[in-house]
Each structure stands twice: as C-alpha cells, then as structure tokens.
Input
Amino acid sequence: MIKLKEKLIFDSLFYKFNFNKSILFKEIGYKRKNKYLFLIFLCLSDVDQNKIKYNFKKNNEDLIFEIYINKNESYELTINENEKKSCKSFYFVIVNKKIQIENVFELTDIP
Output
C-alpha cells in the first residue's frame, strides 16, 4: 500500500505536468479504520504561504472550501455532506512548485 505522503506527491506531480497551474484538490487517507480528508493546494506561483487565507461556506447540503491568495486569485473546492460526515478530521496541505510539502494544518473550524 502506498504511503499518503507519496500519494500526495504523485498527485501533485500529475497536476503540475498536466495542467501547469496552481490547483486545489482533495484526497482521502486512511489510518487504521479512520478516514481523513486532505485538501491540497498545489501552489505553482511564488506566494508567501502566510498570505494564503481560507474560509468555509455552506451551499445547500455541501460545504465549500475557499482559499484566497490575493484579490485576483482564489480557488474553491466542494465537499459533499457524505465526505464531511464520514471523515474523522480535515487537513489543509500546501505543496510548493518544487513538489515539497510546505505546511499541513488541521482544520478545526469546519461548520
């Protein structure tokens, strides 16, 4: 079984070489019987990670995860109700353009 860190790096490489732009995607990881949701931001531009802000908003049954880089650059990802209920924890992962994991945040403020 492939380790989660390696899977995140492989996915990031796929997005980098196929789309060649910053992208926000999700990945599910398992440890023992627990399920975890990872929201990964592949940042291909030179951005200070301290300037990346995130927010959650509700849309009917779904939850929308938004990140803001600056006034002109934002990304969003939809998390459906089943994913939200079935996952024990949520994490936000920032991957830089060298495909290195820069930071991992546990998201505790999910509505």
The two ends are 33 Å apart (CA to CA). Residues 24 and 89 are 18 Å apart (CA to CA). Residues 4-19 form the longest helix (16 residues).
